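Justification of resources, computational component.

The compute hours requested in this renewal are based largely on the per-chain cost of generating structure records like the one below. Each record pairs the submitted sequence with a full structure-token output. That output is archived, and it is also reused by downstream analysis tasks.
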Amino acid sequence: MLKVISSHVFLRNRLHPGLLETIQKSGADGVELFAARQHFDYNDRSAIRDLSEWFRSNPTEAFSMHAPLYADYEMGRWGAPGINVIHPEKARRIDAMDEIKRALEVAEQIPFRFLIVHLGEREDTWSPRALEYSITALEHLRAFASPLGVKLLIENIPNDVTRPANIIQIINTGHFTDIGVCLDVGHANLGDGVKATLDELKDRIRSSHLHDNQGDRDAHLWPGDGSIVWDEVYDGLKTAPQIPAGVLEINYSLEESPETVMQKAAKAFESF
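The structure output for this chain reads:
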């Protein structure tokens, strides 16, 4: 598997070339840019230029980008609404897609392969309307992403809309032969189970978010610090028709220095 780490592990810090150097030293082949404006401001041309120059000068690639979840600088802590492309209100859906398109424009300066997309938020339920809005959003974002060389991946999140069977229905109903899945192993452990989710989505998996938990909350722990059986995860991913990248998506912690992150990431990559 391609070894990738999400910049989410440094979410409390502004992303800069020094942190990318740390990621590279861990042995990572690529980086997933986590589009949160307090961390990676996709509207800041100067910051994008600095990161672009680093990627052009180093072998570590910008593998993917996680679409923004909030448009503010506080991840919604002060009441800003989440970015929800299937929200019941049309204006909210349009605003959400416009914000994601602003993030996608980064690909003009920092080329990346995949955009990881959430369909809905935790409280969203499955319905014919959710199916319709999901297809509309994916069609719209795909049309914008394609000329930039970016493909969309749907992430399974802890909601009803992105249960494995529903993701497959969205893809099949929309005839999205070029849209795949980012299997989030930690989220699967909170829902239908890792093995069942992996087996159902295996043909569509193009990337994977690897993090652990105890089955009670979305803790984003390092692999091995929770209850997930990782040998089964790696064996399952390696039997997928297209062996997906393994993206460490670890929760930021004030107690961990960049050097500690580098050491733990390198140890996790050994398991790949």
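Strands lie at 3-6, 30-34, 61-66, 114-117, 151-155, 180-184, 205-210, 245-248. The chain has a mean pLDDT of 96.
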